[in-house]
Amino acid sequence: MKHAPSSPRISRRAAARRWLALLAAAGTVIAAHADDIGRGVPLPPNYQHECGACHLAYPPGLLPAASWQRLMANLPRHFGTDASLDAATGPAIANWLTANAGTYKKAREAPPQDRISHADWFVREHRELGSAVWQRPAVKSASNCAACHTRAADGRFGEHDIRIPQ
Amino acid sequence: MKPRPADIRCLVLAFALTLAPLVARSATATELLGNYAQQSGRPAAAARGQALFTSQHGRDWSCASCHGATPVRPGQHAATGKPIGALAPAANAERFTDPAKVEKWFRRNCNDVLGRECAPAEKADVLAWLITLNP
Known about the structure:
Helix content of chain A: 25-40%
CATH architecture of chain B: Orthogonal Bundle
Radius of gyration of chain B: 19 Å
CATH topology of chain B: Cytochrome Bc1 Complex, Chain D, domain 2
Strand content of chain B: under 5%
Number of domains of chain A: 1
Largest sheet of chain B: 2 strands, antiparallel
CATH class of chain B: Mainly Alpha
CATH superfamily of chain B: Cytochrome c-like domain
Largest interface: A-B, 20 and 13 residues
Strand order of the largest sheet of chain B: 1-2
Oligomer: heterodimer
Shape of chain B: elongated
Strand content of chain A: under 5%
Low-confidence stretches of chain B: 20-24
Order of helices and strands of chain A: HHHHHH
Number of helices of chain B: 6
Mean pLDDT of chain A: 87
Distance between the termini of chain B: 53 Å
Mean pLDDT of chain B: 90
Number of helices of chain A: 6
Largest sheet of chain A: none
């Protein structure tokens, strides 16, 4: 007895094309998110308020827990200034930073002086800029992410949101 | 059914009690100036305040390094470049309304600029000067 075909069988070539398309799509999505190391963790109001007054409230995933702990233990001498917090707020922020610290490849190692801008991955990502860009008045410092990363406050550092000021 | 006077009084009281903590924390620059001047035991002097604000005191920064020499416009952090809202109360309605915040920033920034806490007289002088500024 002849069976009716249940569904048209696709050729192996067509199947391979489908797999490739799927892989390419997945790869694009992954690549697009590779620069979004900071995205995903909402910043609590006390962190934004206290730690975002003098610089960007950095996404906690940019540093490992050990770095955050050292920074929070030395706030009166925070890269040359007094950034001390009151007795209640300091520990609360320190706990949150530790709990949300970077754990995967980029942020696993503590950078020199616990500076995000001295991490290997940071130096690599920004190598093409040249040192002159950091001197521009509108940029001023490698700690001033928002000067070029227009969506840094949302934890978004992807290519499409970059505008380097003159 | 029309609300009875007792009900209305209860509502008003409940409303006031809810808002009271917010109101209690709020202050004005003039009130804070008065407090500091009283603590210092002498009248505040705006000219002294301006001198303190715009001078370096043995260290790299003056107050003006971040806030500007006439802080009626936004300033910029001297190291990071982050924008800082104008400091003069006439230019920025939020300034000097939260006593705890004012104390916190005096503590930190006087430590940066002078290497010590500012005395109440110094805080009064600076406030007296800032209050005179108009955008």
